[in-house]
Fold this sequence. Notes:
Chain A has 201 residues and is an alpha+beta fold.
Amino acid sequence: MGGIPSVHPFPAFLEPTFSAEMLARVDSTIAVLDAAGIIVWVNPAWEDVERPHRILSLVNTAYLDGIAGPLRAYFEEVLTEAMTTGEIYEQTYDCSSPTTIRPYQMRVLPFPPHGMMIEHTPIAGAATPAPADPEDPSDTRFLTPAGLIVQCSNCRRIRDPNVDSERWVWVSRWVARSHPRTSHGICTPCLGFYWRRGRRR
Amino acid sequence: MHILVVDDDANSRDGLAELLTFEGYVVDTCADGPAALARLGESSFDVLLTDYVMPEMTGVELIDAARVTTPTLRCLIMSGHARVGPADIVWVPKPIDVERLLLALGR
């Protein structure tokens, strides 16, 4: 990582816990928002992603303007709650391709009443080849010890029983039609979005 | 209203318990049918809300066994498969529509 340091002044409310030099060295893409949700500083990693892809919000724009559809309302609630409670929000998600699973962690670190820091971090060492879709319906790779396949009833991903941590993967043949031995659950991101939204204490 | 939530998936089980508690219900949970039958024998419940596909015992089998000792127990079954169970069991399709579930519980 490296890139060109941000020309915008580093927010004073992050000091001394963080410094521009410290945040310039990390793999995480980091955006710092003021209390109104306006981006006031980003680290070089954020700029390195935004510059060629034009997919992230820029300094002096509203962070939520970069989020479309129903997710905008969800993250508006997340950010508001973080600022109100002072509690860190965390979630893991994947930004994967058909061949590679890449887990990421998103964290919102609030610094009320001044603002917050949002970081997206690739989970170190967690990128793995995606499992090939089973051609044989009796393929047992995705069966739990109880002989069931656990599938998120919302996003249709399959829980990978071969890892200790929670990981959900796409198995395309079971998206439209579930395996007969499927127990329908809910993955953590869907749980937060579909069930917990609007019901946070 | 005292509800027993039974689901082998921890996210579903704990998420429903959290949601229903937030809505004012008293909730207990179990991860499978045998544990649920034991729990039903320990306390009085108004509603059994159970998943369908589970290890050891399906939700329908659980309801059939529960009704032997508690014939008045109100039963709802959750499933991502096609409608399951006898007609007198309320079917809650997965993915669960929270508002629809709350209406079924009589909010």
